[in-house]
Amino acid sequence: MARRRWEPTHRSRCTIAADGVGGRWVAGPWRRARGVVHLVGAGPGDPDLLTLRAARLLRDAEVIVYDYLVSAAVLDLANPCAERIYAGKQQGCHALSQEEINRLLLAHARRGKRVLRLKGGDPFVFGRGGEEAEHLARHGIRFEVVPGVTSASGASAYAGIPLTHRDCARAVVLVTGHLKDGAGEHDWPMLARPHQTVVIYMGVTRLAEICAQLLAHGLPAATPAAVIERATTPAQRVVEATVATLPALAEAARVKPPALIVVGEVVALRSRLDWLAAPALAAAA
User: Fold this and answer.
1) Are strands 36-41 and 142-146 parallel, antiparallel or unpaired?
2) Beta carbons of 115 and 62 less than 8 angstroms apart
3) Longest C-alpha distance within the chain, in Å?
4) pTM for this entry
5) Of the four, 40, 219, 272, 280, which is 20 to 30 A from 76 by CA?
6) How far apart (Å, rounded) are the C-alpha atoms in residues 152 and 200?
7) Dihedrals φ, ψ of 86, to 5°?
8) Residues spanned by the domain of 251
9) Contact, 133 vs 39, CB < 8 A?
10) Distance between CA 59 and CA 62 in Å, rounded?
């Protein structure tokens, strides 16, 4: 049986109507009285990287709960009449706790609202989308997951760094720089293995420690590495170095979050594949 999608029968800037009744939402046998939460990936920043589904849901949402990593350019595409709630998390500064966000999604859905939970990158890749989906499922709230271009893929592509390459990277490891309290430590011997690319989310404030651990567990000091700051946006910066020299160079450049760390031989390909820096291509972009 084909999956039913929620789509409005009519769109305007601020109302959605069916049968002449403003605000009514119709999809198959369901009616507006039942809310739904869409867990949507906003991609790494460039609004052109949104999926078509994400763009449609942005236009139709009644409540938008968005994260720190959602760019202003993406929010500009949203329904101007939607209620917007900032739920961003930065190191040492959380607008809302995860428990508060869970309760917020539940409350608006129970009021029959079309809720858009908008996350940077992909909701199921270090976006806590799984935790929020579990909470909604436990309380009988219908939800949809809309994948986005994850930050690892978007950042590396815009920096001219392929995540895999048959000559030097047969695997990709995605890891967070911040572990949940009580979760222990990273598997450093695994992360220091050769012939792979390691992408570290939310790790720029621990960059010196991360590089020191990789070196201590056998990764050669000359292994190429890079930090990509504010990837895919006009403010993107890339600091390219080696595992041994990256912390000092990143500090000198005053790199700040949001930024991704990429470690592996693929980083050396950037000198030939940095398409965004090519004058003709940059002008076209």
Assistant:
1) parallel
2) yes
3) 68
4) 0.84
5) 280
6) 8
7) -80, 125
8) 152-279
9) yes
10) 9
Clarify whether residues 140 and 170 are in a common domain. Answer: no
* Adjacent-strand bridge partners of 172: 197
- C-alpha 105/C-alpha 37 separation (Å) is 7
Query: What are the pLDDT digits (tens) for 127-179?
Result: 999 999 999 999 999 999 999 999 999 999 999 999 999 999 999 999 999 76
Alpha-carbon distance 263 to 244, whole Å? 11
CATH of the domain at 168: 3.30.950.10
pLDDT in tens, 212-260: 999 999 999 999 999 999 999 999 999 999 999 999 999 999 999 999 9
State the catalytic residues: 67, 89
The amino acid at residue 256 is K
Could you tell me the two tokens for 227? 């930090």
Determine the residue type at 243: V
Assigned token pair, 229: 């700051």
The span from the CA of 38 to the CA of 36, in Å, is 7
Q: Which residues pair with 221 in a beta bridge?
A: none
